[in-house]
Amino acid sequence: NAPYKLDVEKPLTLGPLVDPEYYMEARYALNETHREAMVLIPKITEEFAKIFGRTHNGLIEGYQIKDAEKVIVAMGSTCGTIREVIDEMRSKGKKVGLLKITALRPFPAQQIYEALKSTVKVAVVDRALSLGSFAPLASEIKAAFFGKTKKPKTISSFIVGLGGRDITKDSIREIFRLMGSAKEYQGEFIDLKPEYLKESYEDPV
User: Fold this and answer.
1) In whole angstroms, what is the distance from residue 160 CA to residue 175 CA?
2) Whole-angstrom Cα distance, residue 154 to residue 179?
3) pLDDT digits over 146-174, tens only?
4) Is the overall model pTM greater than 0.85, yes or no?
5) What is the pLDDT of residues 9-18, one digit of tens each?
């Protein structure tokens, strides 16, 4: 018996913000709340760890990054596959690692900077693309290093798994392979199938 619900007999406006006179101040207040959350999230995850025995930072999670020369930055389930590849490469003496972003908003720019500032090469993996622009997470990571004197030699952007396409170990190996070159990649598509781009259609006219 919810006190507020959609009812044709009693119409309501749900979720309005404010008119133009107060909109800027409302957005400012929301942004300040995000800043407060940046401090609260790690504290809450500590409380969670005490209760459930499972721990993570709540903002970022580093995996084998302490001495890593190449680090992939990613989010979500892709990180499991990346970890497996890292374990295989580490067994062969390769200094590779993963930085998992666990909080996109508020964006932990300072924590990311501190974690990666001494890394030689960084690759950002996005499962999204802003059409006509740059991949979203890559843009955020680059912004975190803007104006900094100490930063990775290259920060490359790779796009994978769009539309639910599988991201395999070979996909991750290819990213690490490309990181071995001197080139800084910007929005490089991994596992793209060029043959699909050659398909044509008959002019109906």
Assistant:
1) 10
2) 9
3) 999 999 999 999 999 999 999 999 999 99
4) yes
5) 988 877 767 8
